[in-house]
Task: structure prediction
Amino acid sequence: MENFKNYIEKNKNRFLSELFELLRIPSISANSDHDSDTRLTADLINKHLKKLGLDNCEICETEGHPIVYGEKIINQDLPTILVYGHYDVQPVDPIELWNQDPFQPYIKKTEIHPEGAIFARGACDDKGQMFMHIKALEVMLENGDLPCNVKFMIEGEEEVGSDNLELFVKNNKEKLSNDIILVSDTGMISKTIPSITTGLRGISYMEVELTGPNRDLHSGHYGGTVANPINILSQMITSLHDSNNKITIPGFYDNVTEPSEEERKEMASIPFNIDEFKNSIGLDSEYGELGYTTIERQSVRPALDVNGIWGGYTEEGAKTVLPGKASAKISMRLVPGQNWKEINKLFTKHIKDITPNTVSVKVIEHHGGQPYVAPTNTIAYKAASNAYEDVFDLKPIPTRDGGSIPIIALFEKELESKTILMGFGLDSDAIHSPNEHYGVSNFLLGIETISNFYHHFTKLSND
Result:
């Protein structure tokens, strides 16, 4: 498929320029101040699909941010690939830790990306990876080499739970019918070692609010006589793990599917350097549940983490107050066997049980999603493996990802089709963090690999 490689090389500067246009739009789905930006991004993606000659291109309204849809059906007897991606991005806080404006993309050489990396919010998650699919379609169409049918469904709420996509999928099963769902929202082991994600952790995202006195109090007058909501909340959060870093919520592990010894051996064979892992995030030692390796902790074991905590005075200088309220946002990453709705109930009950009567508590459910595991003996997996091997000259390694894409499990339930996760990001790309970036070569090689996947999938489907 040399013609694909040549076309990408010839047009790479334009591809990057078009991606930069997308990255300049601050489509932060969690912040209503950016609703017009999410709409602008949807409009731009729709224009790209129309320009490629896709049919039935439309911006589908939801209760929240819109979904962009388009299709190219060349023959009903051929396989159909449904491409899923998202155009919304995470908030940029803390903005002071960014080296430059997060919505003014630029390319800079790094140790891992000597050819240059694209720095911007959404560069890797998921605008850069989503845009690879649009450009891969262009590569095939411009070379007269699209071997099967394709449908695009690009949403704007993945970073806030995909609540409205669920209803859209349930109401449009015929429109979205497919033979395989193709997603690039995950990563590879390294720049030279490709991998295919075969599992995702689920998620339960909660908020806890404690209320003590009816107002902020003078800490000199009242300190030591009134329960401080921040102190109480800190004690409660600390109690959610035991001395072995195991989660203490009763029933939390009841349905966890433990990895088999064979699976643990396979994970142990994955190329992984613990020193590089620690150095990449500036830490001297690893941390986690006793009895499991770092790879296991970040993929096949559950986790509970505080994502944000606040209360009282946090501005510059001092203000001696005893706060009336304290709050925390807490996410739990779930593994096969766990159900996010059941975990929500267990979490809520436990938090209420451990709240002392000196404060009142409110537990808020935000969003959740089920864990997902995909087989490695399917046509889609073999096609993806062949495509990676074409481009990287190395057979990809199956891996489990610690992140969550809540909609993937729903796809299988509602559309009765599997998903193949072909990601090209790296752990070092700082997604959800300041200075998010994405290697230029990862972007371009991703386009080539995806184009090859279409051909391998069609061929294997017809054999």
The two ends are 20 Å apart (CA to CA).
